[in-house]
Every structure is written in C-alpha cells, then in structure tokens.
Design goal:
mainly alpha, single chain, 448 residues
Length: 448
C-alpha cells in the first residue's frame, strides 16, 4: 500500500491530501477565501498576546471555516497537530483517542505507520489570525456601542418632544441588540433616567419607547418599586390597550417583570382596564404572537386569589374555553392553569358550568397533550361535576368522559390523577344503573 507522506513547506507540516487536497498555507487560504473575507495578513505583535481559547469562547461563532474544526470534537482547534495520514486534529482529542487503544486515523480509519504527531503551525496561525480579526472587530463594535449608549443617555437628560422620541428609539435598538449597551445603561444610572420619563403627562410615543427599553434591562428591586407607582402603572395599562402589537407585548413583559418582585401588591393588577387589555391581546386573531405573553401575565395574576372573581366578571371563562382548541401546547397549558385557578371561586365554577363547551373541550384534552394538561382538565371537570352532579355528569358521559377516565386510570401517570379519575368516574355513574352506564359509555367490550 503506498504510504502517504505529509508535505512540508519551509519545514512546517502542511495539509496535502487533506480536506481540500492541497497544501494549506496562509497565502493559499487568503487567496481562496478561507479567512471569510477578513483582510489578509497576520495580526500585529500586540494582538499575539490575545488568548485563542478566550477568543473562541467569547465569539461563540456558529459559522467557522470547516478546515478549522477538529473532526473528533467538531469544535475549533486551538493546538492543531497532523498525523502521518495528513489529517489534522486538536492535540488533546487525538491523544485521548490514542489513550483508548486506537492506533488508527479517526477520519480515514487507516492504520498509522508512524504514531508521532506534528504541530501544524501553518493551520494554527490561520486559525489565530481569523479569530483575532473577528475578536478585535467585535471589541471595536462593542466600544462604539457603549459610547453611543452613553451619548444617548446624556441626550435624554436635555431634549424634549420629537428629539426625545428619536433618542429613545435609537437607544431601544441599541440595547435590544447589544449586551454591552445594556450594561452601560445600567452602570451609568440609565434605568432611573429612563423610568423618570414615565408619568401622568407622558405621551404614548415616549412611553412606548421607554417601555421597549426597560423590558431589555435587568431591573433591580429599587427600580421595580419605582415603576410600580400608580401613575406609571396607569400609563402602562393605557399603552397596553392602545399601542401596536409590539408595544402591547412589551407592556405585558414589563408588568410580568414587576410582578416577580416580592413586595408586589395585588391591588396593582386589580385593574379592570389591565385585565380587559390582556384578554384583548389573548383573543387577537390577527397577531398570534401576543397570545403567549398575555396568557403568561394572566397566569401570574391568577396566583393572587383576590383578583380571580374580577377576572371571571369580565367574561374571561367562556372566552378562554372557546380559545382552547386553537392553542398550541404551551399556550394551552397556561390557559388551562388559569381556568383551573378560576374554578376555585364560586363565580368561576358557575361560569364554567354555564359555558356549553367547557365539558366537551375538557374531555377532549384528557390524555391528549401532556400530563399537566390532563391534570388541569380533570380538576376543572371535577369542579363542574361536583357543582351540578346530575346535569353535568350526564353531559360528561355523553361526551365520552368515562372512557377517557379509564385510560387515565390504566396509564402510568401520577397516582393522584388516577385517584381523582376514579372518584370522578364514580360520581358520573351514580345517576345510572350499571347496565345503562356501560351501554352509554360503550364500554361493554372493555369491561368484559
């Protein structure tokens, strides 16, 4: 068998017969565009101090030239070495391969006639040059972004009217796109400056941009407390009801952030206008991207028991029940959680009973989506059937509840769910003789 000899160029192991079938050196790589369009030449002496591992980690690039990737780890190489077969690997990876008793080339599976490994300095310098140039470009952009964020904060302290709106628009774009800009805004006290622009006389144009910036920042406890002032919350609610879909979503995200604060008071969300705005967002068929954020906030609000009756009074129960068939699994789980929470108050149970689609929709969801959804649906059915056993049990049985309950009991799900299913099955059977119950449920074959 002819032996493959790695080519040498100026005493450095090349890459002949490798991935591209030619010697891989700096000149060839630049000519062929391996460096991804970055200017040719090796970075200066000052850049040589940069740590390759740190650059690779901080850049975290999704697209790297394939020739830089170790075939074993599929990660960029930091210390490339070449085998006698001409294939190049990360040093630590190929040494681990050898330590496992393999004496073959992992890529070609050829037996090695020479177990030595040779540092591929040409490829190392290619990798180092490429990552260095990307890294320095990232650092320069980062510094430019930080400086621009500082300038915009200073501008906001001085300008008013349309100039303020424009400054806020630009700052929103910057903080949404760059983590360094977000850090600059926070470190330089920008949260207080931006939050101070929200008030009873703030225009919706300014308020929308301010909210768009705040949802991209990490707010501390003091900032959240400041934003929970009645005048600021009132403005957020107004914008939620009247803004564009992006602004509405930003409002819900900001309100959700505020509700995470341990000192949050339920009266802050005991607002008719807020709940109406959230329900409109959830029901908006033109903008489905608002459903999930709206349901998330409603779910959090429902954790406050004192607000549940108010939510029911706004007609939330039938509206949510009608939405169920069209929701995706994540939204469905949130909607069922909300309905289950509302079923813990008398007004909620009555509303669920009066909605003609409650029982059919809940029966349909049993054992269909997830165990969590089954749990909520079962809890809702229990609340409704306990409220009016004769009326609701017959409707549930006609909808196929008994067969679904038997499936739950026979499944490998939570024992608590099995117990609740058994109790509900017993409750549904009380109004029937055994023969009639079996015939109504079409379970003769199953029981036999």
């Amino acid at each position: 068998m002819p032996m493959f000899q790695p080519s040498r160029r100026d005493g450095v192991v090349g890459y002949e017969g490798g991935r591209d079938g030619h010697v891989l050196d700096l000149d060839t790589a630049v000519k062929d565009g391996v460096l991804g369009g970055v200017g040719g030449g090796v970075v200066g002496a000052g850049v040589e101090k940069l740590d390759l591992k740190k650059m690779i980690e901080e850049l975290d690039l999704s697209e790297v030239p394939s020739v830089f990737i170790c075939p074993i780890s599929l990660e960029p190489m930091q210390d490339p070495v070449t085998l006698c077969t001409g294939q190049t690997y990360e040093r630590s990876n190929i040494l681990k391969w050898f330590s496992l008793g393999h004496f073959t080339c992992p890529t070609t599976m050829q037996e090695l006639w020479d177990e030595s490994i040779t540092p591929n300095r040409t490829l190392y310098h290619l990798i180092y040059t490429w990552f260095s140039q990307k890294y320095l470009l990232m650092k320069k952009k980062s510094e430019d972004v930080q400086g621009r964020a500082s300038e915009l904060l200073e501008t906001l302290k001085k300008v008013k009217g349309q100039a303020r709106v424009q400054a806020l628009k630009e700052l929103q774009l910057v903080v949404a796109a760059h983590a360094t800009a977000r850090k600059t805004v926070i470190d330089e006290g920008g949260v207080a400056v931006i939050s101070s622009l929200l008030g009873p006389f703030t225009s919706h144009a300014v308020g929308s941009e301010v909210i768009g910036i705040l949802v991209n920042l990490t707010l501390d406890s003091e900032s959240k407390t400041n934003l929970m002032q009645p005048a600021k919350i009132s403005l957020m609610v107004d914008i939620l009801n009247e803004g564009c879909i992006e602004t509405k979503i930003n409002c819900t995200r900001l309100i959700e952030m505020l509700m995470e604060e341990k000192d949050f008071r339920s009266e802050v969300v005991s607002s008719h206008s807020l709940l109406v705005g959230l329900m409109r967002l959830v029901k908006d068929k033109r903008h489905s991207n608002g459903v999930l954020p709206g349901l998330k906030v409603l779910r959090t609000i429902c954790l406050h028991k004192e607000v549940r009756a108010l939510i029911v009074s706004l007609g939330a129960v039938p509206q949510l029940v009608e939405l169920l068939p069209a929701l995706d699994p994540d939204c469905l789980e949130l909607a069922l959680f909300i309905l289950d929470a509302l079923s813990t108050v008398q007004e909620g149970r009555l509303a669920l009973k009066e909605c003609s689609n409650t029982i059919p929709n809940m029966v349909r969801l049993l054992m269909r989506v997830s165990e969590c959804c089954t749990q909520y649906a079962l809890s809702i059915l229990w609340s409704v059937c306990k409220l009016a056993p004769e009326e609701c049990s017959s409707v549930a049985v006609d909808a196929g509840l008994a067969a679904k309950l038997l499936l739950v009991i026979q499944s490998g799900c939570n024992p608590v769910l099995k117990q609740r299913s058994a109790e509900l099955l017993k409750l549904c059977s009380l109004n029937y003789s055994d023969t009639i119950f079996i015939s109504k449920c079409k379970l003769t074959r199953t029981i036999q």
